[in-house]
Amino acid sequence: QVQLVESGGGLVQPGGSLRLSCAASGIIFSINIMDWYRQAPGKQREWVATIASGGSTNYADSVKGRFTISRENAKNTMYLQMNSLKPEDTAVYYCRMVIRNLIHWGQGTQVTVSS
């Protein structure tokens, strides 16, 4: 089975930066879409950013200008560079990849923004 392994979460102060990684392993032929979601306690999971196979990106308004999504196709890996972090960014961040029309989710990584 395809596995998505996330890393890079942690505790950071407001205004700080963090970079999340999501690496896919297993039998992979192509990854059409990669994106990031996040979920805070008691809230629904929300979409954060998307990067398509061609490199086009889209961001939620709440993170636009602060977060950057990227991908390294040869390594089947995507990243989320998070700058100017705010307390409201605190959540479990999940990566998602569409691989041969099947959706795969990472295990989630906790990001806590607090003084």
Provide a descriptive summary of the structure in words.
With 115 residues, the chain is an all-beta fold. Helix content is 0%, strand content 57%. The strands form two sheets. Strands 2, 4, 5, 6, 9, 10 and 11 form a seven-stranded mixed sheet that branches. Strands 1-3-8-7 form a four-stranded antiparallel sheet, with no helix packed on it. The chain is globular and about 45 Å long. The N and C termini lie far apart (40 Å).
Stretches with pLDDT under 50, minimum 5 residues: none
Number of strands: 11
Count the DSSP helices.
Answer: 0
* Strand composition percent: over 45%
* Share of residues in helices: under 10%
Distance between the termini: 40 Å
The overall pLDDT average reads: 94
* Morphology call: globular
- Which structural category do the helix and sheet elements fall into? mainly beta
Radius of gyration: 13 Å
Major sheet size, sense and barrel closure:
7 strands, mixed
Summarize the helix and strand pattern as letters.
EEEEEEEEEEE
